[in-house]
Amino acid sequence: MKTAIVGTGYVGLVTGTCFAEMGLNVVCVDIDKNKIDKLKDGIIPIYEPGLEELVKKNYSDGRLSFTTDLASCINDVDIIFSAVGTPPDEDGSADLKYVLDVARTIGKNMTRYVLVVTKSTVPVGTAALVRSTIQKELDKRGLEIEFDVASNPEFLKEGNAVNDFMHPDRVVVGVESEKAKKLLSKLYKPFMINNFRIIFMDVPSAEMTKYAANAMLATRISFMNNIASLCEAVGADINMVRAGIGSDTRIGKSFLYAGCGYGGSCFPKDVKALIKTASEHHVDLEILKAVEKVNAEQKKILFRKLSDYYHGDLAGKTVGVWGLSFKPETDDMREAPSLVLIHSLLQAGCKVKAYDPIAMNEAHRILGNHEAIVFTDDMYDAVLDSDALLLVTEWKQFRLPSWSVMKKLMRTPYILDGRNIYDADELTQMGFVYECIGRAYNR
Ligand SMILES: NC(=O)C1=CN([C@@H]2O[C@H](COP(=O)(O)OP(=O)(O)OC[C@H]3O[C@@H](n4cnc5c(N)ncnc54)[C@H](O)[C@@H]3O)[C@@H](O)[C@H]2O)C=CC1
Ligand SMILES: O=C(O)[C@H]1O[C@H](OP(=O)(O)OP(=O)(O)OC[C@H]2O[C@@H](n3ccc(=O)[nH]c3=O)[C@H](O)[C@@H]2O)[C@H](O)[C@@H](O)[C@@H]1O
Known about the structure:
- By secondary structure, this protein is an alpha/beta fold.
- It contains 17 helices and 14 strands.
- The chain has helices spanning 10-21, 33-40, 51-60, 70-73, 97-109, 126-141, 161-166, 178-188, 203-234, 238-246, 267-280, 286-298, 301-309, 337-347, 360-367, 403-409, 424-429; strands at residues 2-6, 25-29, 64-67, 79-82, 114-118, 147-151, 170-174, 197-201, 318-322, 351-355, 373-375, 388-391, 414-417, 433-435.
- The strands form 3 sheets. The protein has a 6-stranded parallel beta sheet with strand order 3-2-1-4-5-6, sandwiched between helices. The protein has a 6-stranded parallel beta sheet with strand order 11-10-9-12-13-14. The chain has a two-stranded parallel ribbon with strand order 7-8.
- The model has no long low-confidence stretch (mean pLDDT 96).
């Protein structure tokens, strides 16, 4: 079976590569020529553990190929996956421009049956829109050609994408015909050795499942961040509370970590898009509006704590920042809490010394050149002569620093831990002032 993946971004590249690894013939298509040229040269445009070697291996084995020309491969494949971006429009809704561009190209060029599967995160009704867009193009050409549309949303996480794709908890597939169901069952058959489940359903339910999943995960995080604030106020410890509630199998352990807010390309945009869809249908998603509001406040929490510590007098202070990407194991800076923090620090007149193991270039590109920001080559350089260290992203290399070295380097031994990774007792005993999220402390 031959498959085309349209949109060789994050999801498209992981999907195409993993399908090829499972023995399928895959052509990855993107309109970005620069990206496709780089991939052909073995240069992977994103940082994702384990992906580079799989891309190179499958490309050299001939199962994976790259092109900018969708029209040229439409009639060579049985299934086309559309994995193009669906960025937020000005009003928060998902912009379907790229999804519909792909549909138009298919309708303009197809000469035989094809199954068009949307992998991008799209609002309910998009598959129907893809169908009518393709049909319109066929009508213009005066052709009657059978085709199917389906929805197969993707649930991978950045930083663990290959593993998530190869060992998914489930694969959700929305179909409208037995033919489409058979084709997708066959496509996913090689993955069955990993014992996962395909959940077939109608198309609108599949489209909604993706948003509901991300909205539920974002809700858990904002809920825990909200409870963390209460823990601080009443003298409880959010880490203990997490262990206590997470052991209830009805609640589960995952996605209960309080911190300095969620970021990334998906939770913020998908929560917004779902609220927008709901409002278009006169449904008020009050819970999700609160989830967004709590998260926006949570992204300010490190700055607020720092400001409280220095009684609002931050001008001229030097602040070390560890971790810039929105989470570890990625160079993705989209909606990263570090950006909100750094903007506030600069506005308050601080000098920022920032370090991230992977996202430095991307952070520099986004933040630009600013005389008050230094991007350091080493994590310890970022705390030299600093008045505080703010841990924003919990990369592994930050977990066990040499505290004795840190103590010598810092001007004021003040650690503000935005991801609750350090041992408060150990740091206090060593003479640091330690603060984290959701735990009462004494200064
Ligand atoms: N990034 C992630 O971790 C996940 C993303 N998603 C969803 O998957 C979709 C794609 O996300 P990403 O991969 O992050 O996007 P991305 O922005 O990394 O990649 C999108 C790619 O599509 C290409 N493109 C745009 N129009 C095209 C066209 N007409 N023909 C061919 N290529 C075209 C762009 O050049 C770009 O390379 C979004 O809907 C997102 O919400 C779902 C699960 C995980
Ligand atoms: O639709 C998507 O694109 C993807 O969005 C998320 O994946 P991702 O954005 O890569 O990252 P997550 O691991 O979910 O983390 C998102 C944010 O939440 C934060 N987070 C996560 C977990 C937690 O307990 N607490 C917490 O603050 C992280 O620090 C990060 O900023 C979902 O987890 C994926 O299932 C989904 O496919």
